[in-house]
Design brief:
Blueprint (H helix, E strand, L loop, with lengths): L14 E7 L2 H10 L7 E7 L17 E9 L5 H13 L4 E3 L3 E4 L2 E11 L4 E9 L9 H4 L12 H16 L3 H9 L8 E4 L2 E8 L5 E5 L4 E4 L5 E2 L2
Parallel strand pairs: 1-2
Antiparallel strand pairs: 2-3, 3-7, 4-5, 5-6, 6-7, 8-9, 8-12, 9-10, 10-11
Helix pairs in contact: 2-4, 2-5
The structure holds biotin.
């Protein structure tokens, strides 16, 4: 499913663009703590300390990736899944999502999403890194084997950012049922053997809360709320 209709521009203003920063998520967090409104956008051409999920770093050669973070006040349920659907739409019709929110093209990760903040204060920072024009040969060796790129030009990053803001506007306002439906239509793990820190089994899709349901190798089912899974074997 794809959400169409006229774009409502709620996200992306005010917009702070930096040539270089440590991490756009860190800049956005500072702005959020300082009272920045819902929809505030921080983007950068380069990051010196980009961060990924699970405490990893996020690397992108200068000027070749879309690096952005949004301040969201009153974020929707299923934010992580909705954001992944928005990014996947921008990445292309063949883009799949590896639970919970890695966006893959041809099995390679072209985008990652890092959500941080203070849910108890009803605000979050939604950070997105999308490899638009990345030369994979310039990535650190450990990342290179699994990373992908849109293979577009660096001059297109601004236009792709605008497209993504439009898609985020639509998907963050969509019903949970629509988000789940769209996410399931791009599930990269469905039916595949997966493994994680505490087990392995066959991925059976996501439940209504966005948990990954796994049929365990030795019987029974597991519902994973967070963490990392990888293809087994
Ligand atoms: C992942 O590990 O998959 C999430 C990667 C998120 C990277 C983006 S780049 C923009 C924003 N700033 C950061 O430091 N991280 C996120």
């Amino acid at each position: 499913m794809s959400l169409g209709g006229p774009a409502r521009r709620g996200l992306g203003a005010p917009h702070l663009h930096l040539r270089r920063t440590d991490s756009t998520n860190d800049r956005a967090r500072i702005l959020a703590l300082d009272g920045a409104p819902h929809g505030t956008l921080v983007s950068a051409d380069a990051q010196s300390a980009g961060r990924g999920r699970q405490g990893r770093r996020w690397s992108a050669p200068d000027g070749t990736a879309l690096l952005m973070s949004l301040v969201l006040r009153g974020p929707p349920r299923l934010l992580s899944l909705a954001a992944a659907v928005a990014v996947a739409e921008v990445a292309g019709s063949g883009a799949l999502i590896k639970w919970p929110n890695d966006v893959l093209l041809d099995g390679r990760k072209v985008a990652g999403i890092l959500i941080e903040g203070r849910p108890q204060e009803d605000w979050l920072v939604l950070g997105i890194g999308l490899n638009v024009a990345v030369d994979l040969g310039q990535l650190p060796g450990d990342v290179r084997a699994r990373a992908g790129t849109l293979g577009r030009g660096a001059a297109e990053i601004g236009a792709i950012r605008e497209q993504l803001l439009d898609r985020l506007d639509a998907w963050l306002a969509a019903s949970p049922a629509a988000v789940l439906d769209a996410w399931r239509g791009r599930d990269a793990l469905l039916g595949r053997e997966v493994a994680w820190a505490h087990g392995r089994g066959q991925a059976c899709g996501i439940d209504g809360e966005g948990r990954l349901v796994v049929a365990l190798a030795h019987g029974g089912r597991a519902e994973l709320c967070s963490g990392e899974v990888h293809l087994a074997g």
